[in-house]
Specification:
Chain A: Its main location: membrane. Chain A: It is a peripheral membrane protein. Chain A: One of its GO terms (cellular component) is plasma membrane. Chain A: It holds the Pfam family ABC_tran. The structure holds 2 protein chains of 2 kinds. Chain A is of the alpha/beta class. Chain A has one domain (about 1-259): P-loop containing nucleotide triphosphate hydrolases (Rossmann fold, 3-Layer(aba) Sandwich), CATH 3.40.50.300. Helix content of chain A is about 35%, strand content about 25%. Chain A has 8 helices and 11 strands. In chain A, strand 10 (about 225-230) and strand 11 form a beta hairpin. Chain A starts with a strand and ends with a helix. By secondary structure, chain B is mainly alpha-helical. Chain B has one domain: MetI-like fold (Orthogonal Bundle). Chain B has 10 helices and no strands. Classes of the chains: A alpha/beta, B mainly alpha. Chains A and B meet through helix 2, strand 7, helix 3, helix 4 and helix 5 of A and helix 6, helix 7 and helix 10 of B. Bound molecules: adenosine-5'-triphosphate and magnesium ion. Magnesium ion binds near residues 52, 53, 181 and 182 of chain A.
């Protein structure tokens, strides 16, 4: 089954076609097709092990598909769909500079302060000057409400604060698309809200986002395209009204179980 | 029957130690010099071996694994005789005793440091690498800016204890005539025959070094904490924190 965002006609920023991925001898993705349109917010959900993370990680080639096409901003990156003519492929590092990612475990750099997590990354990746990178870092920290904590190290921040720094760090690279892999799953319940608030603000700015999450209320609010996965396949998709009349029985059951 | 009055009168001549203090200190200096040079080379080669061993390039990883397993097992005494006499016999090139000592230690300890670094590098969560890559860092950049600094922190205490072992192993270099602590002690003993007194003094010197090294590495460790608590890095971060405060004020 293929999934397309609602706003047909607008530019497609990320397109997956026929993505197959095998770990060892087990095929965990059985041919995924997914289009992410500019400015759209795609929500991916489904049971554990269904392949949500693997789909997301194919989009920035943290997982290299065995076959299939990963097309980002018009450039082809994947190994290509079997049988199709090969086209020139871009480099993973160039793809990743256009696509930001936020992880379940935050993955801040523990040896750098909140400010330097952003500033040092800017310097090493974009070659920004010390002064400019620090100022940009301050601006990004301010946007997520953590400017005051700039000098703190990750170990001195709560989980919610760490995740907000991680979001700020990804945004400082000026990505065209942001990927979120269960960004609130590792957080204590009382800290989930602050991270979702930052993501909601980001969604309102029109950032193109792909979010793996089980926060169904959040999904309901921002999901322009909602994708239900099971056992390596996309089994149901829908637009903004998806959650009001879920027709797929398995999706319905799953939503009932996580609510 | 063994009677205590069969023994010669015991006469500990402790003043000998004080009289020859400068010779002993000079020997200690030599031990420290050899071991410090060897520490630098062993750490560098050890890191290189660790990276080779973890690489997916089979010949590199197999070479590193064999090297480690062979040289970990060779005693320092054998190593130095081999380097000093063997090299000269085989290739006709004579190392100085100092060079031979450094090379002998490096051969052995680069194997140990390789294992220390491998454990430290493997201890870094894979999320760090993924986060760096996802931001758009090259693999080399991920290694130098993220993995290596964090692994160094983990390795430092182990490097410290290894270094104490290196200092002690310099004692075997007396055999090639390196005038370190034990050689000095042997020389003094030859003229004074006071082995208990003189070797006790040598033991005290080694223990002092062990304490000093421990202290120094604890200091270094503190500078690698997040946030750093050591004097040097606190001094360095003071200026940095003031800049951050200015930045916060500017953008608030
Ligand atoms: N690196 C890996 N090596 C081997 N198997 C893997 C690897 N990564 C994922 N898998 C397997 O692939 C399948 C899909 O994993 P994936 O992480 O994409 O699922 P998910 O939907 O994100 O699950 P969760 O909700 O638990 O995060 C699972 O069966 C998982 O065990
Ligand atoms: Mg997952």
């Amino acid at each position: 089954m293929s999934a397309k965002s609602s706003s047909v006609g607008s530019e497609v920023l990320v397109e997956l076609r026929g993505i197959h991925k095998t770990f060892g001898t087990v095929e965990v993705l059985h041919g995924i097709d997914l289009q992410v349109h500019k400015g759209n917010h795609v929500v991916i959900f489904g049971p554990s092990g269904s392949g949500k993370s693997t789909v997301l990680r194919s989009m920035n080639l943290l997982e290299e598909p065995d076959s299939g096409s990963v097309k980002v901003l018009g450039v082809e990156y994947g190994p290509g769909v079997k049988g199709e003519k090969q086209v020139p492929r871009g480099k993973a590092i160039e793809l990743r500079r256009n696509v930001g990612m936020v992880f379940q475990q935050f993955n801040l750099f523990p040896h750098l302060s909140a400010l330097d997590n952003i500033a040092v990354s800017l310097r090493k990746i974009k070659g920004t000057s010390v002064k400019d990178s620090q100022e940009r870092a301050a601006i990004e920290l301010k946007k997520v409400g953590l400017l005051k904590w700039a000098a703190n190290f990750p170990g001195q921040l709560s989980g919610g604060q760490q995740q907000r720094v991680a979001i700020a760090r990804a945004l400082s690279m000026d990505p065209k698309v942001m990927l979120f892999d269960e960004p609130t799953s590792a957080l204590d319940p009382e800290l989930v809200g602050e991270v979702l608030a930052v993501m909601r603000d980001l969604a309102e700015t029109g950032m193109t986002m792909v979010v793996v999450t089980h926060e169904m209320n959040f999904a309901r609010e921002v999901g322009d395209l909602n994708v239900f996965m099971e056992a390596g396949n996309i089994v149901a998709t829908g637009g903004r009204d998806f959650y009001d009349n879920v027709t797929n029985a398995r999706a319905q059951q799953f939503i009932g179980s996580v609510l | 029957m063994f009677r205590s009055d069969d023994l010669p009168p015991v006469n500990f001549h402790w003043a000998l130690v004080w009289e020859n203090r400068w010779a002993l200190v000079r020997g200690l200096e030599v031990s420290i010099q050899v071991s410090i040079v060897a520490l630098v080379t062993s750490v560098a080669i050890g890191l290189f071996l660790a990276i080779s061993r973890m690489s997916s390039f089979k010949p590199a990883s197999m070479f590193a694994a064999s090297y480690v397993n062979i040289f970990r097992g060779i005693p320092a005494l054998v190593s130095v005789i081999w380097v000093y006499f063997g090299w000269s016999l085989l290739f006709g090139y004579n190392f100085t005793v100092f060079q031979a000592g450094v090379i002998a230690l490096t051969l052995l300890y680069s194997a140990f440091f390789s294992e220390i670094f491998r454990a430290a590098l493997q201890a870094i969560p894979k999320g760090q690498r993924e986060a760096g890559l996802a931001l758009g860092m090259s693999r080399a950049r991920v290694f130098t800016s993220l993995i290596l600094p964090q692994a160094t922190k983990i390795a430092i205490p182990n490097i410290g204890s290894m270094y104490i072992g290196m200092v002690k192993d310099t004692s075997t270099f007396a055999i090639i005539g390196l005038v370190e602590v034990v050689r000095v002690t042997q020389n003094l003993n030859a003229t004074n025959f006071q082995p208990f007194v003189l070797y006790s003094a040598a033991a005290v010197l080694y223990v002092c070094i062990a304490f000093a090294v421990d202290l120094i590495f604890r200091g270094i460790e503190k500078n690698f904490q997040y946030p750093p608590t050591g004097r040097i890095s606190r001094f360095l971060t003071k200026g940095k924190n003031q800049k951050v405060a200015v930045l916060i004020a500017k953008f608030s």
